[in-house]
Amino acid sequence: MNLQPAQKNWKLLQPDKTLLEEFENALPVSPVLARVLLNRGISSLDEASSFLSPGIGYLHNPSLMDGVDRAVERTLKAVHSGEKIMVHGDYDVDGVTSTALLVRVLRLMKADVSWYIPHREKEGYDISQAAVDEARLRGVSLIIT
Q1: Which of 11, 60, 105, 135 is deepest in the core (most CB within 10 A)?
Q2: How far apart are CA 37 and CA 31, in angstroms?
Q3: Longest dimension (CA), the chain
Q4: Which of 120, 122, 121, 103 has its CA nearest to residue 112?
Q5: How many CB atoms lie within 10 A of CB 109?
Q6: Contacts of 52 (CB under 8 A, 6+ apart)
Q7: DSSP readout, 26-62?
Q8: What are the tens digits of pLDDT across the range 45-65?
Q9: Residue 2: which pLDDT band, with cuts at 50, 70 and 90?
């Protein structure tokens, strides 16, 4: 079997040369990134600076998520009473990263916390019976997914 790569016709947008030069000179970015910013519709230095270094005000308010207050209360109760907590993550990059971050924060809070990342091929996606069984073996009373 002879596989040929698909032929692509890339159409590169040409941003305004004056703005491009302004971005290249005023921002700590490469010419390529300056072009990407402009091609994404970012058209002022203020807008580009905010995009590149966003403040905390750009984050979604987590208290707007349904059930988050109960989850926080339950987690704090487990931390303060010394319960065993298991963070059930995922095997993709954001799952591993968020698992590591949450475990680190809980450890800074002096929580008794462990983590579990399922085997992609054997357990698949989402929490499995194997994960629950592992939590039971560890004496875990709270699983955070």
Answers
A1: 135
A2: 10
A3: 64
A4: 103
A5: 12
A6: 27, 29
A7: HSSS-HHHHHHHHHTT--SHHHHHHHHS--GGGS--G
A8: 999 999 999 888 888 899 999
A9: low
